[in-house]
Write a structure and sequence with these properties.
Blueprint lengths: L3 H9 L7 H21 L7 H9 L6 H34 L11 H15 L5 H24 L7 H23 L3 H12 L7 H28 L3 H6 L4 H23 L5 H13 L3 H26 L7 H18 L7
Helix pairs in contact: 1-9, 2-4, 2-13, 3-4, 4-9, 4-11, 4-12, 4-13, 5-6, 5-7, 5-8, 5-11, 6-7, 6-11, 9-11, 9-13, 12-13, 13-14
Length: about 350
């Protein structure tokens, strides 16, 4: 068994994963490919001239160039939303020490949805700013509630108890959402497209509203990453290394909720991106959060953008919402992870 001083040295000076430079360069190239594909592919395939006109010639008012300009905001928003969900998933897994924690699995998305639908039904909200604050409140309250329920009984907040608490809470809140919507047709019309999860309605004003929450959440995640590494060794060891575990969990959880809630407010409850992104990252780089968090942001951005492109191609001439595509991929992965013995804790 290693001594506390050895553990402290390992925590304070983690080695750089052998393949990190290669993985980083390959991931950034993949981001560039995704951006290009997102601008060109869709219900209408665009040519090189239309792409150049849309990007560099604002005076050109052709149909193809206008489509490119609309797809730019959509692409930027899908990249930012995917990054936010990837980092949120990494934070929630670290705070709960649960390798299958994800905003959608723990019911956080559904809590945000409930508050948004209540705002539409009872407060007549309709703007991105109003959506965000209500979604953040719903996400935070649900996260606290699920963690409290999952912590009851012997053994504390075990991974399986948290997942069961999240699933039960999500089902109950989804029933409340339906109960509010069904008697109110105008609420259903406004809410049903948002509920599926889509980046198709992205706008620059929405991105501007979303950006401060994204910046704060990712900054907080990067700052807390070294201490979260210590937390993975256990609360007693982390405390011995000088980590204030209570404050650390609160800050990291707040950052995760901000990232998830802000994304859900504008894009709807998109599930499984955080789960997929973090596990792909850990498979390539290991469990050091100094590298897992930034690479989860890149992985999440790539996953959500690719899912959006697939949805546009499969649903042509319309589109298949990105939340449906991520669910098709994420649900089997969740089942596989739940069947593995390593699901007990991180």
């Amino acid at each position: 068994m290693s001594s506390p001083s050895a553990s402290k040295t390992k925590w304070a000076n983690p080695h750089i994963p052998k393949h990190f430079p290669l993985v980083l360069v390959a991931s950034l190239i993949l981001v560039g490919v995704c951006v290009l594909a997102s601008l060109v592919l869709g219900s209408r395939l665009l040519g090189w001239k239309e792409l150049m006109d849309g990007l560099f010639h604002p005076d050109v008012d052709s149909y193809g160039a206008n489509i490119v300009r609309k797809r730019i905001s959509r692409t930027v928003f899908s990249l930012l939303s995917g990054a936010a969900l990837g980092v949120s998933g990494a934070l929630m897994q670290s705070v709960t020490r649960n390798p299958i924690a994800d905003p959608s699995i723990l019911g956080v998305n559904t809590g945000a949805s409930l508050f948004v639908v209540c705002g539409i039904a009872f407060l007549n909200i309709s703007t991105a700013n109003e959506y965000i604050w209500l979604a953040l409140a719903g996400a935070a309250i649900t996260a606290v509630f699920v963690f409290g329920i999952g912590s009851m009984g012997s053994g504390g907040a075990t991974p399986i108890k948290l997942v069961l608490a999240g699933a039960a809470t999500s089902a109950a809140l989804a029933s409340l959402v339906s109960a509010i919507m069904i008697p109110r047709s105008y609420v259903m019309d406004q809410f049903r497209f948002w509920q599926v999860g889509s980046v198709g309605s992205a706008s620059w004003s929405g991105i501007a509203t979303f950006a401060p929450f994204l910046a704060f959440g990712i900054l907080a995640a990067l700052v807390t990453a070294p201490a979260l590494n210590a937390l993975a060794l256990g609360d007693d060891v982390a405390t011995g290394l000088g980590v204030r575990t209570g404050i650390l969990r609160m800050v990291a959880a707040l950052a995760g909720v901000l990232l998830c809630g802000a994304t859900t407010a504008l894009a709807g409850p998109i599930g499984f991106v955080g789960l997929i992104a973090t596990h792909v990252t850990r498979l390539m780089l290991g469990s050091d959060l100094r590298f897992v968090i930034p690479m989860s942001a890149i992985s999440g951005a790539v996953i959500l953008t690719i899912s959006d492109i697939i949805g546009r191609l499969l649903g042509s001439p319309g589109e298949l919402e990105v939340g449906v595509v991520t669910a098709f991929v994420g649900a089997p992965l969740l089942i596989l992870l739940a069947m593995r013995s390593k699901v007990r804790s991180l």
